[in-house]
Design a protein that fits this description.
Elements: H1 13-20, H2 24-31, H3 39-52, H4 58-65, E1 70-75, H5 79-84, H6 86-100, E2 105-110, H7 116-125, E3 131-135, H8 143-150, E4 154-157, E5 169-172, H9 174-187, E6 193-197, H10 203-215, E7 224-226, H11 231-244, E8 250-253, H12 256-268, E9 278-283, H13 286-289, E10 297-300, H14 303-318, E11 328-331, E12 334-336
Helix pairs in contact: 1-2, 1-3, 2-3, 6-14, 7-8, 9-10, 11-12
Amino acid sequence: MPEQTTEPPRPTLEAVAARAGVSRATVSRVVNGGSGVRQALVDKVREAVDELGYVPNHAARSLVTRRHGAVAVIIAEPEFRIFSDPFFEQQVRGISRELSTRDTQLVLLWVEGPGDHGRIARYLDGGHVDGALAFSLHSDDRLPALIARSRVPVVFGGRPVAPGPAVPYVDCDNRGGAREAVRHLVSLGRRRIAHLAGPRDQTSALDRIAGYHDVLVDPDPELLCEGDFTRESGARAMAELLDRRPDVDAVFAANDLMAAGALRTLRERGLRVPEDVAVVGFDDMEAVVRETDPALTTVRQDVEGMGRLMVRLLMRLLDGAADAATASVITQTGLVRRASA
């Protein structure tokens, strides 16, 4: 008969604690993504985990902690937008990296249309995740109400249209960044400054329009064109603008993709940037900026950092360490001056 072999016993929390020279409770906090452990001890525990090949028993942990070790990331945009806009890539990267440090899985859900709302609501109601992160919401979006009904803790990326007293969110200073962009164009001596706006059913676009009006109190309404945050809409809006106001000498675009589209149209029309028309974008998306010619002047927001902040805020809510009524974070923006303005 062939000799039977038995697998060695799986490493335990006690074994990890002995290897790291810390208590079992410390190992448990580190493995379960808890807070309050000094970084030096965290590093020791993780090193011991790697050396011993310790694998947490998620089923047992879930019974004790009532956590599932997963977070839903809900993007209220169709698939083609998610995979063509580097903004989403950067935000999801920040979320993923922060979740990985907490041994928590990311479950990505996106909304192709209203028909997906029921599917997402059923998933959240099914108790598969500990919490949710939702962004790119629109004013007529039913998602916030559906998430609230599921009683799953949530943090929003971007200021919700009607945040109310108890909706936690992370956003950048969209209005302040827009003011800085337009003031820069004014400082260059530009006087016919247009704005290629984002969709008015999103608060980021509305705040950037408001920042534009903060500096240019009574601009010519013909200098305002609307797009939808895509490169194609920026090109189209720039063409419409030039058709009715060929004397425009500066453009503030609501994001870098729209600015890139505007640069393409300006080049096709034989206009020089920035000599004839100065252009400023918003976001500082490296994937976009490195392909623009000339290099795009833009307002920088830390998109990856905001993704990380969303996770940290959600974990504080899950741990009961944050008050949802006051849990909102506004990050700063800054103008990055390059050759287009």
